[in-house]
Amino acid sequence: MICLRAAGAIWRRPLSGVYLSVLLGATHTVKTRPRKRQRLVVVFLATFVTVAAPSNAAPEKASGHTSRELGPRAVFDSTRYDFGVAPPKEPQEHTFLVRNEGDAPLTVKQVATSCKCVVTEMPEGPIVPGQSARITAGWFGRVDTPDYSQTITLKTNDPRQEIVELRVVGTIAFPVTFRPNLLSLRDVLKGQPYETSAEVVSTTWEHFEIKDIDAETHGYTHRLEPLDADELRRAGAKSGYRLHLTMGEGRPVGEFQESIKMSVHPPNDSAAATGTENEAENEAEAEAEPFDIYLPIFGKVSGRISVIGKDVQNDGTVRAFADRKPGARTTRLMVKVRDPKKGLGLVGFESAHPGLTARLEPLGNGLDAKGLHYLYLDVEGLKFKQSRMGDRAIALRLEFEHPRIERLELKVEVVLEDSVISGQGLPGRRHTARRGG
Q: What is the DSSP code (8-state) at residue 52?
């Protein structure tokens, strides 16, 4: 009973050195009692000693704990400012706030800016804990690009963020724009002049001039004429021009990308040019300086005739297949005519190898009237000792009966294939092993 009462007391009250002594004394008392109770006492003893160890160790750990110093800590109200839309060359500024939420002085220094048009005012000295400082950025938008994005790089003694980047973004309301903002030319035929145009307009100025149009450098001739009242109204502009461009016949086949440069000259004498009485607008126009703008042009020059098909490679080479057995194997391609006269007749062909021949047939169903024809390449495999690939491609020249399309020259890569019956496959299943040369 002594042992059980002691154990019960320990369960009901916090463990202490007194009750451990009682329990140990009870253990000696029950040495002559049944074996079953001895095991019960030992189980209680092991349990309470295990539970007691953490309760004694915890205060020691807590007593040895010391708080770590924060040091300087930089917290910015924002690192990005979007000023929206602003006129060109209009001075603007914005103030960024930085607060020291640490417990040591914070230093903030300017390292660099992305361009000279961003001017900053920095804190003169360290920022004490709990205080804030102002970082002011000033700028004005350029007139040669509508997208504005500049950065200020700062260095702090905050180990968490030693380098901080402040960014100013926005859109400059361009005084002169293109309509459309780029030209996409996709129906240009080789050897045929191509005409296009774009409007150069201003929603700000009543008058401006376009000079030094660099069109001839890219193979264009140009003509500039003022927009009439109806055209200005449709464009929502105060003044503008239509720029006519004509591409010459010497442009090679393929894609192209270029920009035509021109100089915009605002009116020097606004009052005389516009006749307005708004002094603020007149002064802004009078102070504006000439600047350059660029008209982007993308396009593709296509030949009057082209070959289309899955066996046409990126470089224009045609791949034809042949079997190592008697007879010819045919590769079918499609020929597209881009010319007012869609009909095309094959007069003859010249092949650099006797095993390669060609023939041309209309598609039928009226598709030949749209300039579509079938081109068949017949290859006799037994006339080739090996595949003809790459530098050993076969030259094939086709001659036509057409007023403007006289010939088409192709390079043909011949690929020989061995057709065998595989004993491991399904009965009669054909497997092909291609051989490159």
A: H
Per DSSP, the three-state class of 154 is strand
For the segment(s) 74-172, the CATH number from 2.60.40.10, 3.30.420.40, 3.40.190.10, 3.60.10.10 is 2.60.40.10
Find the helix or strand (DSSP H, E) in which 81 lies. Answer: strand 80-86
Sheet holding 239-247, edge to edge: 177-179, 194-202, 239-247, 220-226
Beta strand segments in 248-393, E: 254-265, 291-302, 305-308, 318-323, 328-337, 345-351, 356-362, 372-380
State how far the Cα of 354 lies from the Cα of 120, in Å rounded to an integer: 78
Cα(first)–Cα(last) distance of the chain, in Å? 102
CATH code of the domain occupying 177-302: 2.60.40.10
Q: Which two tokens stand for residue 433?
A: 């092993």
Please provide the CATH number assigned to the domain covering 305-435: 2.60.40.10
Task: Give me 145's structure tokens.
Answer: 């690009």
Q: Which residue has the tokens 């154990």?
A: 7
CA distance 334 to 372: 7
Rounded to whole angstroms, the Cα distance separating 329 from 403 reads: 32
Instruction: For the chain, 437 residues long, give each residue's pLDDT as a single digit of tens.
Output: 444 344 444 444 444 443 333 333 444 444 444 444 444 433 333 333 334 344 444 444 444 444 556 899 999 999 999 998 887 777 889 999 999 999 999 999 988 887 656 767 888 899 999 999 999 988 877 666 678 888 999 999 999 999 999 999 998 888 899 999 999 998 888 888 999 999 999 988 899 999 999 999 999 999 999 999 999 999 999 999 999 999 998 888 888 999 999 999 987 644 434 444 444 444 444 456 888 899 999 999 888 898 989 999 888 899 999 988 888 999 999 999 988 888 888 999 999 999 999 999 988 776 667 889 999 999 998 888 777 776 678 999 999 999 989 999 999 999 998 753 332 333 333 322 222 33
Element (H, E) at 4: helix 2-12
**Nearest in space to 318 (alpha carbons), one of 343, 300, 335:** 335
